[in-house]
Amino acid sequence: MTARRITRIAAGLVSVAAFAGLAGLVALRAPGKRVVLGSVPVGNPSWGPSWGTANVDSRLGRAFILDDGILQQQVTLNTGGGYSWSGSNSSNKIHIIDTRTGRLIKAIDVPQSVRSLAVDTATARVFAFGQGQIQVLDARSGSTLGTIPFTGNLNGFNDSIGTSLVDERAGQVFATVDPQDSNAPLDQHVLVLDGRTGRTLRDLAFPHGAGITSISPNGSRSTYYGPSLSLTLDARAGHLYVFNTNGQMSVVDSASGRLLSTRRLPVALAGARMDERTGRVFAVTAPPGAVAVGSPRRRQPPQSALVMLDPATGAIRTIAPATALFWGGPAATAIAGDSDRVFVLDGTRRTVDVRDGADGRLVRAVAVDGRPLQIALDGPHHRALVTAFSGYTYATVNERIAVLDTRTGALLRTISLGHVGYVLAVDTGTGHLVATYDTMAAAPADRYAWLPGWLRPRLPWIPPPPPSLGPNQRLLTHMALTIDPS
Questions:
Q1: DSSP SS3 for 183
Q2: b/e string for 374-395 if b means 16 or more Cβ within 10 A?
Q3: Which of 157, 234, 352, 383 holds its CA 20 to 30 A away from the CA of 299?
């Protein structure tokens, strides 16, 4: 047996041991059953909207994770418990993972400007939204089918897609365009895209909503004009609802893309979720626009609330206080289509509030042993999957996944992750969950330090020495775990 083969076998054994250690950390075994099905190194997904971007095509059994492409990076621990890092990558990546086995299928380079994804399972298309363009991918193979430009604001190719919704019945994708110029109240746009080609079918313009005005201690004022639109879809009725932070609600026909009506609401709404069974919309009221810079008030949670809206009449009723949405923002609500239940993450009381989809009343408050951060629903398997964390520094934080029954709200089980997870996506076909996970460790020992310095460069199969780290430096690795939460 050659030295090269011995080295490869040893490296393989080390990899197996590392995975076994990770699986032990995560738990994550039940009697006679594996909970962690696979582990794949990915880049850092934490910069994306709503703590990262992951989408699933349950028909194909594929998960698509958008990240910065940097699989491992050197970080410096701060005194307060956080950490910082430097370095950049020339492109982002989309990691395609088999949700049945947890294995990596393909890693695709996409432009660094790509910040969000949409997956149309009816057409087996993946849309990677960058600045001024949309890259269309085949969900089966991961191959690039084309790059389509889009328009929507004065800045043209500098603008990017903010949020998107897929209407598989109409074969269309709806996307909001975020202008890059935040100093002026430019029109906001909703693009109606073809679900197969990504081509723009319609471009709907809306006046910009209220900006956020900052007042400095010396009295000077400045206003930031960020995105002001949010979307929710009633696929059964064929209506797309567009909410603007200026207090408008617009209704768009999802089949034709035509604007049907616009009405003024008594309060401005930001994030929204549609309950198609009851016809109710659960939304977040937009916080006040003025913030006093440097004052204690600026450090308080935004004064928003969860409300229930009847879109036919415009009637609005408050059903949850502002504190319930502090940690998760609009992503802290989810509608369970199998049970007429609304799940609200309450970061103050550390509970998941289960509410009735018809009248918004509180049915049950479920303690999840930590601050709930994100939620994903699996309707066919009647499961709500919630990430919750405790601790306030990287050394003390403990992330876990709470598994709830969507019909009763009962807490079925808790899966401990140990450290920080950012992204949740669920395959409703298999019931498997894909979650990203951080590990932080000191530099590993150099297994080949015994080699003479002149010989090592001449052995290309021998890895380079691990980096030299200071006492407050660590190596940060991001992993995508495929988990069976049943």
A1: coil
A2: bbbbbeebbbbbbbbbeeeebe
A3: 352
